[in-house]
Amino acid sequence: EYEGERNAEGERHGRGKARLPNGDTYDGEYEHGLRNGQGTYRFTSGARYVGEYRQNKKHGQGVFFYPDGSKYEGDWVDDQRHGYGVYTYANGDSYTGDWFNHNRHGQGTYVYKESGSKYVGGWINGSQGGAAELIHLNHRFQGMFLNGYPIGRGKYVFDSGCEQHGEYIHAEQAKEGEEEEEEQPFSVPPKWKASDITKVTLWTPSVEQPPSPTE
């Protein structure tokens, strides 16, 4: 069903409302028979999209409300979350940052609502990856991540004014000389191996910002 404006060729063109065969509805702008411009699309599942369309696809700025109560607000390209956006999850967690082909990818900040902890740094295809800082209530970890886990050398910086340097070692690395078939990468969380404790250093690698003095 469709009620709204049409062009001389009889195509949906301009402002209109439509009900699709599957029960979904669209109220918004059309161009040459396709959803184009601003519109609101309501899914029978309870989901809803309010934003821009281009040739029937979500494209531009838009907000998607998911049935579980989560929400994405940001850039879309060809029906995918792509560009910059904020995703608020059903459990209250949130991600603010770069998206690529529907995945968290690039630089972004993930806030864990329950603990108040915050991950600030790189993302690769939806997982934490690259240089990052994991900030907790009274300390923070600075280092590299891969597939959602810390990897290699890093340091913990405590609000008390000291640092603990060390590295994260994976179970696979710990078994030296044993030939085993490669399992799923990092199926076992890595273990932290501390090397030394120092006063807070005055310099940090260029990818990190020095912690601001508390006093």
TrEMBL record:
Keywords per UniProt: Cell projection, Cilium, Cytoplasm, Cytoskeleton, Flagellum, Meiosis, Repeat
Basic and acidic residues bias spans: 1-13
Compartment list: Cytoplasm, Cytoskeleton, Flagellum axoneme
A Pfam family the protein falls into: MORN
Coiled coil: none
SUPFAM superfamilies: Histone H3 K4-specific methyltransferase SET7/9 N-terminal domain
GO BP: axoneme assembly; meiotic cell cycle; spermatid development
Record-level GO cellular component terms: motile cilium; nucleus
Region Disordered: start-end pairs: 1-25, 172-191
Repeat among keywords: yes
Chief location: cytoplasm
Entry keyword annotation includes Cytoplasm: yes
Record's function text: Functions as part of axonemal radial spoke complexes that play an important part in the motility of sperm and cilia.
Protein name: Radial spoke head 1 homolog
Organism in which the protein naturally occurs: Nothoprocta pentlandii
Gene name tied to this protein: Rsph1
